[in-house]
Each structure stands twice: as structure tokens, then as C-alpha cells.
Amino acid sequence: METCFERALFFSWGCTIGDCQFCYMSTQPDDKPPKETKRSSASIIAETILAKHLGWDIGFFTGGIGVLSQDELVFLLKAISEIIDEKVWLSVGPLTKKQLEVYLPYIKGVVGSTETINPELHKKVCPSKPLKPYERMFESAKELGLKRAMTFIVGMGESREDFSLLKEFISKYDISKIHVYGLIPQKGTPMENYPVPSTEDQAWWISQLRQEFPSLDIQCGIWEDRIDRIHDLLEAGANTISKFRAIKLFGSPLARQIEEEAAKAGRTFRGTLTVLPDVDWDKEVDKLSLDDEMKGHVRKKLHQYIKGMKVMT
Ligand code: SF4
Questions:
Q1: Average pLDDT over all residues of the chain
Q2: 15 Cβ below 6 A of ligand 1
């Protein structure tokens, strides 16, 4: 059985909601307007080209809510889907059916950043991001034939009794994929002093989900301080791995350890976090349907990334 690394493509580091208690995007200074926290399109496109050639799946395209305009989103979704030659999962907050129709040519499904299904806990950790609009989005997505995915963060205060709520939610909206993260206590957030959830806890949620939903696509979120739990999470039933700074740490001992953890769980690791493939990167940029100016920016960014990645390999 295979596993692989899933890259979430982020387009910003700020968000107009900005008060979810676990999220680093809530820690941006007030004098920094969220719309000014966008990454350049060239860097997103360059990262997508890298991800494709390193064999990483694109988990989803995401960023702060209300940061990109519809036109900017369409431009980037079109570019990403052209590079990877498949449609993309989109996670940009709750979208209306009308909005989904605009993105329909480029997306295979929507990810609801639901985080927890316990209503009281949800109110506390996401005070300005209620669940209801996500539920409406899932209904619209279903009508449009789009897949539905959700996120769940272990360690914010849920109890194991909440599993029945999660189970009900997955069944109700016919969720086909779930991202099971473990809390990363971010400095500057109200959760900065929360303990890191144990391997056992994260594995427990994954194994319960696997037992209840044999065909559910389960993706486990890790972090640099918890690489050694990967084999347990895979053995509990996770399909893929995410949340690793895979470009910055490419070829590092931690990256190597991820591949070893996969082997320890008896999985073949598709793609690589350690070996740069021999690719004519300029040619890859040239074949895209972008204007020459953008191609120039993408080429520059791509070579910057590769230069940094070569340091460790
Ligand atoms: S809406 Fe999403 S990106 Fe914005 S603060 Fe909340 S979790 Fe972070």
C-alpha cells in the first residue's frame, strides 16, 4: 500500500476572519490589512510545478478568507489545474452555489475548514466562523457534483464522546475526505500553551474513522516535532501525510525520517522529500499558457526554491 506527502498550497498568511483561536493567521498585526498578506502568483505557480515533479499531491488550495478576489482565484485555480493536469480541492471558507459555479471548471471538491463538530467548542475556537454556512456549502457542492472534504483538529478540547457527532456529520454530508490535524500551539494565539495532543489521541480519531468509514480518504497532519508518530498514524488508517515544511526542509534529516516512517508502517512512499529529480525546469514553465512576463517571474521563483533545496541534498 502507498502513502505520499500532500502539499497544501497557501496563497496568504492573513485572513479577514482572523480570530480562530488556534490559527497563526489570527496573529497578524492589526495594521497589516489581510489583502496585503498575499503571496505572489509566481511563487504559488512555482511551488505547484515543484510539487508535481516531486510527486506530492496537492491537498488543497487555501488561504485566508476574503483575501483573494474571484478573478484572482480563477486565475490561480486555472494555472494550478493546468500544471497538475487535474482539478483541485478548494478551501477558501464557505462559498455560495453561485460562487462554486464560477470555480467549477477547475475544482474537484470543496474542503470545509470545520475544525471541530462539537457545537460549544466550535463557538469558542471559531467565534466568527460558524458551521452552518459550511453545511450549506456542502449541500450546494453535492448538487453540483463536487466532492466534500473537512478538517478536524485533535487537541482543542474535544472529548471522545464527540466522535458520534463527527460520524453523523460525515454521513449527513457524504464527506469523502478528512484532514485530521493535531493542534500546533501557535505563539501569540490563545492556545499557545495548550499541550501537543498525544500520538495516541490523534491515532485514536483516525482509527475510529477508519473503522466507521472504510473508504474515507484520511489525511494526517504532522509537524516537525512529531515526525516519529507518522508510522502510528498510518497504521491507524491514515492514507497520506501533510503539514511539513517540505520545501524549506527538503532533503533534511526530518524529511528522510518521514520516508523511513512510511516504510516502518509497511507503506511505499510515492514521490520524494529528499531527492531532487532531473527536470528541465525552464521548459516546464515555458509550456504553460501564461504570459511571458509571468513566466519570467515563475522561472525566477522556481530557481530560488531549487537553490535553497539543493543546500540540504
Ligand atoms: S478562518 Fe481559517 S484562516 Fe481565517 S483565522 Fe480562522 S482558521 Fe485561520
A1: 97
A2: yes
Rounded Cα distance, 120 and 273, in Å: 39
Which H or E element spans position 204?
helix 199-212
Q: How far apart are CA 260 and CA 280, in angstroms?
A: 29
Q: What is the mean pLDDT of residues 210-226?
A: 98
Whether ligand 1 lies within 6 angstroms of the CB of 18 is answered as yes
pLDDT of residue 36: 86
Mutate to test the pocket of ligand 1, among 9, 113, 115 (most ligand atoms within 8 A of CB): 113
Residue 20 beta carbon below 6 angstroms from any ligand 1 atom: yes
25: nearest Cα among 189, 229, 138, 235 = 189
The protein residue whose alpha carbon is closest to atom 2 in ligand 1 is: 64
Q: How confident is the model at residue 148 (pLDDT cuts 50, 70, 90)?
A: very high
32 pLDDT more than 90: no
For residue 94, report the distance from its CA to the centre of ligand 1, in Å.
Answer: 12
Of 16, 17, 92, the residue with max ligand 1 atoms within 8 A of its CB, to mutate for a pocket test, comes to 17
Instruction: Determine the Cα–Cα distance for residues 95 and 74; give it in Å rounded to an integer.
Output: 14
Sign of CA dihedral 263, 266, 272, 277: positive
Query: Using 50, 70 and 90 to split pLDDT, how confident is the model at 33?
Result: confident
What residue ranges define each of the domains in the chain, with the CATH number in brackets?
2-312 (3.20.20.70)
- pLDDT at 202 > cutoff 90: yes
Residue 313 has pLDDT above 80, yes or no: no
Reported as type and span, the H/E element at residue 219 is: strand 217-221
What is the three-class DSSP state of 127? Answer: coil
Q: Dihedral angle at the C-alpha atoms of 118, 123, 125, 127, nearest 10 degrees?
A: 150
**Does the CB atom of residue 122 touch ligand 1 within 6 A?**
no
One-letter identity of residue 62: T
pLDDT at 35: 85
Top-confidence residue, 140 or 28 = 140
Residue with cell 491515532: 203
